[in-house]
């Protein structure tokens, strides 16, 4: 029975923080506020991988109390700006695509379960030339629910034609850890995203320090 390896996208397969932060800064300009986020600051990088509203709240919090109406007003301008420049700074983490290719070569199914809107996730994969490497892509708006709701994961698994007892989720945040726990499947968290080695505190079934080690990590979890 084949394995199914399901990846998060932002912060797991690719470092998207630079383009996300640029989009947030463009939204602040659109809103006419002086807030700015800095792609060289680790906390700002980490916040970028938590979503558009998290970035808007962070920037606005540096000016004073956060008005959720302003956050809502900035969300669509952020998405629009991001879509215009979705892959200017984004790169896959070293070895990520080679690892995916090796999985496919051995007959594993490979999918993406992301809280990025599906259209933007598909656009990003296309821009980076990686669309054909994945059997399924399920985004934040594909279903009425998203991670950490386990149904988001299960739908990705179904689209990969995978099996519940032969699957694993690879991610980088507490959201991925909670998703895997809710689904009752193993979770591997990467340590090269902005959160770094601190993800060990989330007690995943395994840590991944380098994509060169992916096969050995998976073999220990799903022989």
From TrEMBL:
<dbReference type="Pfam" id="PF00702">
    <property type="entry name" value="Hydrolase"/>
</dbReference>
<dbReference type="InterPro" id="IPR023198">
    <property type="entry name" value="PGP-like_dom2"/>
</dbReference>
<dbReference type="InterPro" id="IPR050155">
    <property type="entry name" value="HAD-like_hydrolase_sf"/>
</dbReference>
<dbReference type="GO" id="GO:0006281">
    <property type="term" value="P:DNA repair"/>
</dbReference>
<dbReference type="InterPro" id="IPR036412">
    <property type="entry name" value="HAD-like_sf"/>
</dbReference>
<dbReference type="GO" id="GO:0005829">
    <property type="term" value="C:cytosol"/>
</dbReference>
<comment type="pathway">
    <text>Organic acid metabolism; glycolate biosynthesis; glycolate from 2-phosphoglycolate: step 1/1.</text>
</comment>
<comment type="similarity">
    <text>Belongs to the HAD-like hydrolase superfamily. CbbY/CbbZ/Gph/YieH family.</text>
</comment>
<protein>
    <recommendedName>
        <fullName>phosphoglycolate phosphatase</fullName>
        <ecNumber>3.1.3.18</ecNumber>
    </recommendedName>
</protein>
<dbReference type="InterPro" id="IPR023214">
    <property type="entry name" value="HAD_sf"/>
</dbReference>
<dbReference type="GO" id="GO:0008967">
    <property type="term" value="F:phosphoglycolate phosphatase activity"/>
</dbReference>
<dbReference type="InterPro" id="IPR006439">
    <property type="entry name" value="HAD-SF_hydro_IA"/>
</dbReference>
